[in-house]
Amino acid sequence: MGVALAIKPGGLTSGRRSGLSSLWGPLAFGAHFALMNAASLKQNKWVRRAALALGILVAFWILAWLAVPPIAKSQLQKIASEKLGRQVTVGKIDFKPWTLELTLNDLRIASADGSKPQVVIKRIYVDAAMTSLFRLAPVVDALRIDAPAIALTHLADGHYDIDDILAHLAPAPGAPPPAPSSPPRFAIYNIAITDGAVDFNDETVHRTHQLRSFELNVPFLSNLDSKREIKTEPKLAFVLNGSQFDSNAASTPFADDRKTEAHLKFDGLELAPYIGYIPAGLPVELRGGKLDADLSVNFEKTASTGLKITGSVGAREIKLADSKGRDLLGFESLKIALTDVRPLDRVVHLGEIALAGPQLTVARDADGRLNLLPEQAGAPAAQPAPPAEAKSEAGNQPAQPDWQLQIDKV
Known about the structure:
By secondary structure, the protein is an alpha+beta fold. It has six helices and 15 strands. Helix content is 24%, strand content 42%.
């Protein structure tokens, strides 16, 4: 009851006002202090210079963002068209100066008659690094080429439909050779080519070869002194005429030893598309078959060049005919295991040779000649004896070691 009598009308309101008054003082002092600091910062010449530099940088970014794409597009189309002798067009260019990212979209190189595109690249993305300024060499954090498509034709007369481009790029007749110089220094990270395609129309054999799903990934490639010993691990994969090809490697391509470890693999490579490239007049004719390979290749250049191949190679469903088109030889599968093959050292060590389902057809013609023997086209002409000088030069060369062949199992 005593507490209730102590509270007077208006007492609570006056208490709140006194609390606000106690808060207003520090707030007013803080605002006054902030205004004084802002004024002092404005009078500081280093602050003014930093603000000016930041404003210039932002203005430069905006100007580059707006101006670089149309200028780059115009100059790229003009210069590339002049250099190649073909019409070159670019759909759109995007540039981000604050991150140095450049994107080219829908790059096209027309055919010689201009009726269709011969090269189409959906997208080229380049992410440059600021460290290029400090290293005085181009450093690219990422390079990506998406969906490149190329159409190439080998004409019936032996020429290619890109011979005019090669002529434009070739040095002018009589031009002095370029002065020798060291290769340009560079560093490129995260190189990727995805979803590539090539159509190669070979009119000489009336066949079109198709390469699809081309993928190439190279994590790192550089010849800078500080990066020469770093190992890069590229990967390559594609489908050629319906056959899958896959590979990967680990290499130091710019180091002194150029050490490289590669793995190559393909399964069921059809031979039919390549039969037209086999020279005519051979005693046997390839009708078809498939090739398999799973190989590891190790290369290193030291005092002497070393090359070692291990793994396995094989063939399936091979069919051979004689010179008259009759069945001669066939087998279901042939597999060869390569334990240690060093061709530069003339060493061949095979773990196993396995042949399954061989079939040999022997026929005798009306003249009593077997199809196993090649046709006689007449007595071979006598070969002239080599000159004495050639003999002496051959004698001065060091003798090559004999080939060493070892087969563990047949």
